[in-house]
Amino acid sequence: MRKSMLVATMALLSGSAVASENAVLLTGKSLHDAVSGKTIYIQTPIAEIPIRYRPDGTMVGVSSAQLAALAGEAVKTDTGRWWVRRAELCQQWSKWSNGRAYCYKLRVTGKHVAWSRNDGDTGTARLGN
């Protein structure tokens, strides 16, 4: 349960995603190409959470010490795997989220991302290099 607290806190702190009229829903190859080898920075009021999506389908995330402490989480860094399923970016952490897989829809305007998770959580992020 404690392991899922960090991700739940990240989702709650990131706030609701506001869809732009110009936002593009990424799907298939365009979604894969947008994240493969890139870092996505999840927005929270405390700090950005960088998630690096490696081309080999693995990922690494680093939480700030403040956010980890707020969530009562001892693990600040985690690894996992990612894949694209039609119009969704799916991922599964080793420790965070109790190792449960989630899938996200990403709507992008420039470098800004509005995401929605398959359990109803929403938030914002920015695309990095």
Please describe the topology of this protein.
Blueprint: H1 2-14, E1 24-25, H2 28-35, E2 38-42, E3 49-53, E4 58-62, H3 65-71, E5 77-85, E6 88-93, E7 101-109, E8 112-117, E9 122-127
Antiparallel strand pairs: 1-7, 2-3, 2-9, 3-4, 4-5, 5-6, 6-7, 7-8, 8-9
Characteristics of this structure?
8-stranded antiparallel β-barrel, single chain, 9 strands, 41% strand, Lipocalin, globular, disordered N terminus, 129 residues, 3 helices, alpha+beta
Written overview of the protein:
This protein has 129 residues and is an alpha+beta fold. It starts with a helix and ends with a strand. The chain is globular and about 35 Å long. It has an eight-stranded antiparallel beta barrel with strand order 2-3-4-5-6-7-8-9. It has helices spanning 2-14, 28-35, 65-71; strands at 24-25, 38-42, 49-53, 58-62, 77-85, 88-93, 101-109, 112-117, 122-127. A hairpin with a 4-residue loop joins strand 8 and strand 9. Helix content is 22%, strand content 41%. It has one domain (2-127): Lipocalin.
Mean pLDDT: 83
**Residues in helix, %:** 10-25%
Number of helices: 3
Main sheet: strand order: 2-3-4-5-6-7-8-9
Report the portion of residues in β strands. 35-45%
Element string (H = helix, E = strand): HEHEEEHEEEEE
Instruction: Kindly identify the CATH topology.
Output: Lipocalin
Radius of gyration: 13 Å
Using the 3D structure, state the CATH architecture: Beta Barrel
Outline the biggest β-sheet: 8 strands, antiparallel, barrel
Distance between the termini: 33 Å
Q: Which term fits the overall shape?
A: globular
Structural class: alpha+beta
Give the strand tally.
Answer: 9
The CATH class, by name, is Mainly Beta
**How many individual domains?**
1
Spans of 5+ residues with little confidence (pLDDT < 50)? 1-19
